[in-house]
Amino acid sequence: MNDNSLNVSVEQAKLLGNALRIKIIGQLIDKPKTSKQVADLLRETGGNVHYHMKKLYEGGLIELVEERKFGGVIEKYYKSKAKWFNSVGDTQVDPVLKDNYLSKDSTALSLRLHLTPQQQDEIKEEFKQFLENWVMKTSVSDGTQTEEYSIGVKIVSTELKSEEYGD
């Protein structure tokens, strides 16, 4: 598994703007699985998961890693290309996180810290683990009514880019 981030296009970012697709990617990180296996793990319908996996595959976010013949059926095993996805330029990975999105419910939390480079790496990893835990915690539906939320963490230096380096 590639634990590094994958830079994504605008089209790929749009594919990631769906909670079920994030759950599917979460199931395909460590071990390749079929759409049926993913559907069973997530307690979702096979057709729904197959549809979303097809979109993720066509969008280049998951890859076909193996085909096995089982009886008269060919099972296709997919794996996520990355655990994390980065937008390039001004493109938001999730457009819901843009400041001008008119949500019925939103919470913005922010603060400033002085961090060493090591602390910056550490806090990034802690946020990643936190978000991964919540993806797993919410992956399986227990039948309770839920609402989809977008959660993003942005760590930004307060120093402006230097013109000297062409940034």
UniProtKB/TrEMBL annotation:
GO terms, molecular function: DNA binding
Domain of life: Bacteria
Record's protein name: Transcriptional regulator
Keyword Mitochondrion in annotation: no
Protein source organism: Sutcliffiella cohnii
Keywords: DNA-binding
